[in-house]
Amino acid sequence: MKLHNQILLALVLGAIFGAIFHVDKNALTISYVDASSAKIAEEIQQWQTVEFVDGKTDETLGTFGTDDQLKILSAFSKLSGEGKKNLIIRATFAAASPREFKNVKNVDKVKSIALVIKPIGTIFIRLLMMVAIPLVFASLVVGVASLGDLRKVGRIGARTIALYLGTTAMAITIGLTLVNAMQPGTRLDIESRERLTVEFQGQVQEKIQTEVAVDVIDMFVRMVATNPIQAMSNGDMLAIIFFALMVGISLTMIPREKSSPVIAFFDGISDMMIKMVELIMKIAPYGVFALIAATVGEFGFGILQTLAWYAAAVVIGLTLHTFGTLALLIRFVSKLNPMTVYKKLRPVMLIAFSSSSSAATLPVNMEVCEKELGVSKEVASFVLPLGATINMDGTSMYQAIAAVFIAQVYGVPLDLSGQLTILLTALLASIGTAPVPGVGLIMLIIVLRSVGIPEEGIALILGIDRILDMCRTVTNVTGDATVATIIQRGENSFNSRKELQAA
Ligand code: ASP
């Protein structure tokens, strides 16, 4: 069976496995220290009530019912260190005698087998991340050094950035149009709104407290690393790209006998890293299975129902952009056959979906663009890492839809200028979003602030964020690959195979 089919199968099986072995919503593990100082992790199930009591004052801090697992977790995480120390948890059961826990260290969901296998997926993601930086650096140095033309580098750079901004703006426009037409916010009933707000309140506070800001000038300043090795160890992609460009350009300016061995060295590293990606991809089906099983096992699909309209707006928007806008660009600007391009991009999309990380998908995207789509090393190694960092069509569209959705729920009026502000801030916020899971939601706070929508509103969409993150990451990486093919076409040097050419 071909690799992409194996991955697809793993994805489906993983989802089924996760749905079967999902986290029990009526079970909790309470870890506490008993009188003999032994650490004990005890499972409680099917409680009738759970009560949090302050051990010092005997004051009740909260009483929770059968279905309040998330509320219990959120209430526990909100307690201060002192609060946790004094906490007494009392649980009552229909069929068993009540239990009381003191010295509680932690309260957590009971991990099902679907969550236990998650490390396999994490290892897979880490392997991909491991390759990314040496691969980007070595390929970019070789690419620029072999271009040997500063003007060409400048031209590719300017075009790439213009295309990234343009495609992202298109994505946001589609998102805004859809969310205004579908009005998902007015379709959410008050009861669901209250329930979501309470359930996710704890996590929201955490996210709101994260310092978020996008400072474009500062981004340019920080692109110049004072210590390139440190930039590499921090995975600071923009600084790595800039340093690689400088190295590549300087190599073209010294005598050939000196530059050749250096270029050959990096060329060897870059080929070696591509080989490593191929090796890592051999375990992709297992990694994907574990990742999807854990995600479905933990988050389930239940919440999809409550937020069906909102999720539909996001998914329809992403689909329109990924297979509409981008397909048109591939057909008429890159002059390639979109169907064939999408077929080749299948493993890239599947890895993006299961990892929710453009950064982890980057090595696979580079390999596929170079080997399957005929994009040259210099273009792929510049356009794709830059894209993984700043180009997020899916994330920006999602941020725009989410912002308007929350505004609709809270009845915040948004006129045309408000919507334009959303367009601009979503564009900036997506540039500032790190290419790893879940960051798009945090950067959404910037968009909400820009038009005065209550930040607490993210509680409404938190529960469904992970699955939408998976979807938007697919759009993000497809956008990067599309721009790579456009740039390649502009360089008039497409060496792609015949099957790819548009009719
Ligand atoms: N997970 C996304 C990515 O890596 C970023 C986000 O939207 O959270 O592209």
Structure overview:
The structure is a single chain. The chain is globular, with a radius of gyration of 25 Å. The mean pLDDT is 89. It is built from 23 helices and 7 strands. The chain has 2 domains: 27-110, no CATH class; 127-182 and 215-283 and 307-345 and 356-500, Proton glutamate symport protein. The longest helix is centred in the first third of the chain and has 33 residues, at 150-182. The protein has 503 residues and is of the alpha+beta class. Helix content is 69%, strand content 9%. Helix 5 crosses helix 12. The strands form 2 sheets. Strands 4-3-5-6 form a 4-stranded antiparallel β-sheet. The protein has a 3-stranded antiparallel β-sheet with strand order 2-1-7, covered by helices on one side. The structure holds aspartic acid.
Topology (SSEs and partners):
Elements: H1 3-20, E1 27-33, E2 39-45, E3 47-54, E4 60-64, H2 69-78, H3 81-86, E5 87-93, E6 99-101, E7 104-109, H4 113-116, H5 118-147, H6 150-182, H7 190-209, H8 216-223, H9 228-234, H10 237-252, H11 256-281, H12 284-299, H13 302-306, H14 308-332, H15 338-344, H16 346-355, H17 358-371, H18 377-390, H19 393-410, H20 416-432, H21 439-450, H22 458-462, H23 465-490
The structure holds aspartic acid.
